[in-house]
From TrEMBL:
This is Anaerobic ribonucleoside-triphosphate reductase. Its EC number is 1.17.4.2. It comes from Candidatus Enterococcus myersii. Residues 20-115 form the ATP-cone domain. The keyword Nucleotide-binding applies. InterPro entries: ATP-cone_dom (IPR005144), Form_AcTrfase_GR_CS (IPR019777), Gly_radical (IPR001150), NrdD (IPR012833). The modification Glycine radical is found at G703. Keywords: ATP-binding, Nucleotide-binding, Organic radical, Oxidoreductase.
C-alpha cells in the first residue's frame, strides 16, 4: 500500500492541520492524522473491488488532499470526529465515488450500532435466550444448561452493560474496539469485587471463622479441617470472581493429621501392650484418615457449585513438607488424583494440583522425598496435573516462594510493618490486557510508530487499572465478610474499616496483561523469527517496557502493578477476530484464527520441550506478576522418565511448568489417548464413540483443565477448541 506523507501534505495545503486536535467520541484529544482517513478509504474500496491499482491509490490520495483542504478551510482549532466523518462522506459524494461512500457510511453506521448494542441489555439478553454461542460458552467450565449458570449469565449481561457505562469513556471505547480487554466485565466494575487470592487457611483454621450464622471453631481432626476448607473455598469463590489457592497444603494440614495420630495413640495405649505395635496401629489409622480426608476434599471441590454456576477455580500447592504426616498428605493427594473420580475413574478437573520441587527435598534420587516426585510424575502422565513449581526459580523471579493465586497470577515478595514476610491473605484486584498485535499491525513495519502507539495505549491501560483499584476500594467489609472480616484475606477488619487497609502499600496486585508477542515480531521479522536474536531482543524490549511502566505506576499509586502473561481462554480468539475484521487476513498474524498467548513459542513449529523452555525462559523476569510454561508431549504413561528429564532440565530455567499430554479415555472400547474433534463432539478414533456418558475428554484451556465433551452446546466448536487448545496458554 502506498504511504501517505501526512506532514508533507499538511504543510503544502494547510499548515494549521499540524496543530488541529480531533475530539474523539470518548472525549480524548488526538493529533489529526489523515493516514487514518486514507486507510479507511482503501479498506472501503478493497471491499468493493479487491486489490487496488496504483491509479486507484492516486485517486484516493487526491480525495484525501481535498478532505484536508476542506478541514483546513473550516476549522482552525479542535474538531469533533463526527464532523471529520461528515466531510469525508461529502467529498466522496462530490467526487462521484458513490460505492466507496456507501461502504464508508455503512461501516461507520455499523460501528455506531455495535457501540450501542454493547450497552443494550435487551439486545444481549436476546442473544442469551437464542443461545448465541459467544454468550453461553464464554467459559469452558460453566454448563449453560443449568439454571444457576443461566441466572449468572443473565446477571453478567446486566453487569457488562452497566459496567461499560461506568468505565471511563475512553477505557470503555478501547475495550469495545479491541485495543484493550477489561477482564471480567460481567462482575466488575458493576460490583467492587476483587479477582483472585491466596486464602489464609492457616489463620482461619487455627483461629476460627464465621460462615453465615455459624461460628466455626478450630478443627480437631484432618477430616474436619478438609471439610472446613471446602466450605471456605465455596464462600470465597462466591465473593470474588477469580481463582483461589491453598499454599503448602501438606504443611497446613499436617498439624491436624497429628491430632488424629494422638487420638489413635491414646486408643492404642489402652489396648496394645507392645510400643512398636502401638505406633504401627496409630500410623495405619492416621494414614487411612489422611487418605479419606483428602479424597473427601477432592470430591467436595468437584461437586461444589458457587453462586456463579461453576465449580470453584481452585489450586492446591504442596510438596515441600518432609515429616511423616506431610509426606502422607502429599502421597494421598497424588494417589487420589491417579485413581480418578467415581467408578469410571474420570479425571478430576479441580482442584488444580501444583507440586513444588526443591533441591535437597525431592529433586534428586538422594533427596528424602524423591519417591513422592516419582508419584507426581506418574500422576502427571495420567492426569496432566500436577503442574510444577521450581522453588529456587520462583524465589528468584517473585522474591519469595508461594503458589499462584488460582491459575497463574503471582504475588511478589512483601513484608508487613513488622518485617514479617506475608503471602497468604493477599489478593489481585483485576487485569486489563493490551492487544499488542494490533499495535504492530497499525505500525505497518515502522518500529518508531510501534513505540509511539504503545505509549498511547499504555496510557489508556493505566487509566483502566487505576479505575479498577479505585472501584475495589469502594467495597465495604460487609460486602464480603468471609474475605474482609473472617480471615480469608488475612488481617480481619471490622464493619467500619476501609478495605483499602488490605490493598495499599503494594499488599494487593493489579495486573497489566499482554498477548501476542509472537505475532508482533512476525509483523516486523517474519513468522520464523524465534532464532533471530534481533527479533527476540525486540520482543524482550516490549515486556521490559511494560514492566518499567508498571513499576512507575506502582510507585505513583502505592499498589503493585504487575505484568501478567494473560490467562486468555477466549481472548486469544476475541482479539484476533476483531483484528481480522480491521486488517484482513495477515500471514502469521490473523491467518491462524487465534493469537499466541503472551511469550509462548509458536506451537505450529512443534518445538521440543527443551527448545521451548530455552526460548521462553528469558521473559518471566519482566512479567513475574503472572506466567506459566507448557510443553506438549505424546502419551507418556509408559515413559515417565521422559517427563522427569524435562522437569529436571527446567529447574534452573523456568519457575512454573505444566504438562500437556493426551489423556482422553473411551469406556466403550478402552482407548486411551487423543480424541478426534468432529462436528458431533470429540470422538474416539478407535470406535467412534462421542457420548459424554461413556467417554472422558479432558483438554487444557487457559491454566486449568476443562471437559469440552460435557458441554453439549459447544459441540459445533470442538474443532476450534482442538485447534486452539495448544495456544490458549
Amino acid at each position: 500500500m502506498m504511504d501517505l506523507k501526512n506532514e508533507q501534505l499538511a504543510r503544502e495545503v494547510h499548515p494549521q492541520l499540524q496543530t488541529i486536535k480531533i475530539i474523539k467520541r470518548d472525549g480524548r484529544l488526538m493529533d489529526f492524522d489523515d493516514q487514518k482517513i486514507y486507510d479507511a478509504l482503501v479498506k472501503a474500496k478493497q471491499q468493493i473491488h479487491g486489490e487496488l491499482s496504483p491509479i486507484d491509490h492516486e485517486r484516493l490520495l487526491e480525495i484525501v488532499e481535498r478532505i484536508d483542504a476542506e478541514i483546513g478551510q473550516r476549522f482552525s482549532t479542535d474538531v469533533k470526529i463526527y464532523e471529520i466523518q461528515n466531510i469525508v462522506e461529502h467529498i466522496l459524494l462530490e467526487k462521484g465515488e458513490y460505492e466507496i461512500a456507501e461502504a464508508y457510511i455503512n461501516y461507520r453506521t455499523r460501528r455506531d450500532f455495535d457501540r450501542s448494542k454493547a450497552t443494550d441489555i435487551n439486545f444481549t439478553i436476546g442473544r442469551l435466550i437464542n443461545k448465541d454461542q459467544s454468550v453461553v460458552n464464554e467459559n469452558a467450565n460453566k454448563d449453560s444448561n443449568v439454571f444457576n449458570t443461566q441466572r449468572d449469565l443473565t446477571a453478567g449481561i446486566v453487569g457488562k452493560s452497566i459496567g461499560l457505562k461506568m468505565l471511563p469513556t475512553h477505557v470503555a471505547n478501547a475495550h469495545q474496539k479491541g485495543d484493550i480487554h477489561y477482564h471480567d466485565l460481567d462482575y466488575h466494575p458493576y460490583t467492587p469485587m476483587t479477582n483472585c487470592c491466596l486464602i489464609d487457611f492457616k489463620g482461619m483454621l487455627n483461629d476460627g471463622f464465621k460462615i453465615g450464622n455459624a461460628e466455626v471453631e478450630s478443627p480437631k481432626s484432618i477430616q474436619t479441617a478438609t471439610a472446613q476448607i471446602s466450605q471456605i473455598i465455596a464462600n470465597v469463590a462466591s465473593s470474588q470472581y477469580g481463582g483461589c489457592s491453598a499454599d503448602r497444603t501438606d504443611e497446613l494440614l499436617a498439624p491436624f493429621a497429628k491430632l488424629n495420630y494422638q487420638k489413635h495413640m491414646q486408643d492404642a495405649l489402652k489396648w496394645i501392650e507392645n510400643p512398636k505395635r502401638r505406633e504401627e496401629y496409630a500410623k495405619a489409622k492416621t494414614k487411612k484418615d489422611i487418605f479419606d480426608a483428602m479424597q473427601s476434599l477432592e470430591y467436595e471441590i468437584n461437586t461444589l457449585f458457587t453462586s456463579n454456576g461453576q465449580t470453584p477455580f481452585t489450586s492446591l500447592g504442596f510438596g515441600l513438607g518432609t515429616n511423616w504426616f506431610e509426606r502422607e498428605i502429599q502421597r494421598a493427594i497424588l494417589q487420589i488424583r491417579i485413581n480418578g473420580l467415581g467408578s469410571e475413574r474420570r479425571t478430576a478437573i479441580f482442584p488444580k494440583l501444583i507440586f513444588s520441587i526443591k533441591k535437597g527435598v525431592n529433586s534428586n534420587p538422594t533427596d528424602p522425598n524423591y519417591d513422592i516426585k516419582q508419584l507426581a510424575l506418574e500422576c502427571a502422565t495420567k492426569r496432566m496435573y500436577p503442574d510444577i513449581l521450581n522453588y529456587d526459580k520462583i524465589v528468584e523471579l517473585t522474591g519469595s516462594f508461594k503458589v499462584p493465586m488460582g491459575c497463574r497470577s503471582f504475588l511478589q515478595g512483601w513484608q508487613d510493618e513488622s518485617g514479617q514476610e506475608v503471602n497468604v491473605g493477599r489478593m489481585n484486584l483485576g487485569v486489563v490486557t493490551l492487544n499488542l498485535p494490533r499495535i504492530a499491525l497499525e505500525a505497518a513495519g515502522d518500529q518508531d510508530k510501534f513505540w509511539t502507539l504503545l505509549e498511547e495505549r499504555l496510557a489508556t491501560v493505566k487509566d483502566a487499572l487505576v479505575y479498577r483499584v479505585e472501584r475495589c476500594k469502594e467495597a465495604i467489609p460487609a460486602n464480603a465478610p468471609i474475605l474482609y472480616m473472617y480471615g480469608a484475606f488475612g488481617k480481619r477488619l471490622s464493619r467500619t474499616d476501609a478495605v483499602n487497609e488490605l490493598f495499599k502499600n503494594k499488599r494487593a496486585t493489579v495486573s497489566l496483561g499482554y498477548i501476542g508477542l509472537y505475532e508482533v515480531a512476525s509483523t516486523f521479522f517474519g513468522g520464523a523469527w524465534e532464532n533471530n536474536p534481533t527479533a527476540k531482543d525486540f520482543t524482550l524490549s516490549i515486556v521490559k517496557s511494560l514492566k518499567a511502566h508498571a513499576d512507575d505506576w506502582g510507585n505513583e499509586y502505592g499498589y503493585h502493578f504487575s505484568v501478567y502473561s494473560t490467562p486468555s481462554e477466549s481472548l486469544t480468539d476475541r482479539f484476533c477476530r476483531l483484528d481480522t475484521e480491521k486488517f484482513g487476513i495477515v500471514e502469521n498474524v490473523t491467518d491462524k484464527e487465534y493469537y499466541t498467548n503472551s511469550f509462548h513459542y509458536d506451537v505450529r513449529k512443534n518445538p521440543t520441550p527443551f527448545e521451548k523452555l530455552d526460548f521462553e525462559k528469558d521473559y518471566p523476569k519482566y512479567c513475574s506478576g503472572g506466567f506459566i510454561h507448557y510443553c506438549e508431549y505424546p502419551m507418556l504413561q509408559q515413559n515417565p522418565k521422559a517427563l522427569e528429564a524435562v522437569w529436571d532440565y527446567s529447574y534452573d530455567k523456568v519457575g512454573y511448568l505444566g504438562t500437556n499430554t493426551p489423556i482422553d479415555h473411551c469406556y466403550e472400547c478402552g482407548f486411551e489417548g487423543d480424541f478426534t474433534p468432529t462436528e458431533r463432539g470429540f470422538e474416539c478414533p478407535q470406535c467412534g464413540n462421542h457420548d459424554p456418558k461413556t467417554c472422558d475428554v479432558v483438554k487444557r484451556t487457559c491454566g486449568y483443565l476443562g471437559n469440552p465433551q460435557a458441554r453439549p452446546m459447544v459441540h459445533g466448536r470442538h474443532k476450534e477448541i482442538s485447534s486452539r487448545v495448544k495456544h490458549m496458554k
